[in-house]
Amino acid sequence: MTKRCQASVAVTTVVLMRSDRPTTVDNPAAEEHNSRVADGQEFVRDTAFIETRITRDGRDGYPVEPGRYRLVVARACPWANRAIIVRRLLGLEDAISMGMCGPTHGVNSWTFDLDPGGIDPVLGVPRLKDAYDRRMPGYPKGITVPAVVDIPTGAVVTNDYPHITTDFEVEWTDHHRPGAPDLYPDRLRDEIDEINRGVYTEVNNGVYRCGFAGSQQSYDEAYRRLFTKLDELSERLSTRRFLVGDTITEADIRLFTTLVRFDAVYHGHFKCNRSTLTEMPVLWAYARDLFQTPGFGDTIDFTQIKAHYYLVHRGINPTGIVPDGPDLTGWLTPHHRGRLGGRPFGDGTPPGPPKPTEVVPAQNWVPVHG
Questions:
Q1: Is 79 labeled as ligand-binding?
Q2: Which of 98, 146, 313, 344 has the least C-beta neighbours within 10 A?
Q3: pTM for this one?
Q4: Left, alpha or beta for 271 (phi > 0: left; psi -120 to 50: alpha)?
Q5: From the candidates 139, 208, 223, 310, which is the catalytic residue?
Q6: What are phi and psi of 108, to 5 degrees?
Q7: Fold topology of 187-364
């Protein structure tokens, strides 16, 4: 059994962000297995999730209930980062607690090595795998983040990350903070879903299709598709501040978590090197606009992001050397996107500061000079 961030793969010898003990340089064999696609094969993502939903009517046996569930994430993982952002924007911190795994892992499970004693203080377990096994003993698929765990039983409810965020937005409305934005407005859902499909296949998953390509042909095709879509998105965003409508939506969150990792890891580590994000003016300004919006940039831990990719993917980076760059200070420079209009939170308001226990350490964030 192999584990990963919600970046799952269905090619026999592929493991994307898989997990168990924190990944270190003394376990290269496991990490080599965790980051290779068989020669000649294309990277294909496994999307077989635990599809149980937490809903207002509890139709799957898990009703919305504040304090009952724990969202388990890793700041390094883009798929988990979506859930972190949505939870924060909607003000669900008091309704849904959050457990944080470390950025590196081995072949069995994400681990709570950031917590004292390596034990999650709420679930009382050292590995996310334990929660999966409580739901399905000997769980045969990937131990992925994000995952929502039922605290009373200690069992995973779902790891279906596309629905985790939309359910936060639609099913948990009774527990949103006053002024919470509507991130998935009913009148725009068809357009949001359409945008999300293209962003997922070509960009969110496209960078992985480049990085884990098993042949030159599959890499070339993934590379072409990725930058074709990024050019299309640049064109779309050249005349509008956000992807859909005039406010931040689920679509912006899904694109942001890939863009914010682009120069730090995808450009070099995954060979997505036609252009850096900073060399794509529209997308760079758009990404900075979101990064500087409360709830986005304050969830980003660049140190954990780089540690995860460069230490875990030993098939791509066998030495385990984590690069010192890139320069991150540009994330705080003016973006001038306000001239396009738009209201980031619509009729709502920005979230307040993050909870003290959820603040990204200053040394892992953007260096602030002066």
A1: no
A2: 98
A3: 0.90
A4: left
A5: 208
A6: -115, -40
A7: Glutathione S-transferase Yfyf (Class Pi); Chain A, domain 2 (1.20.1050)
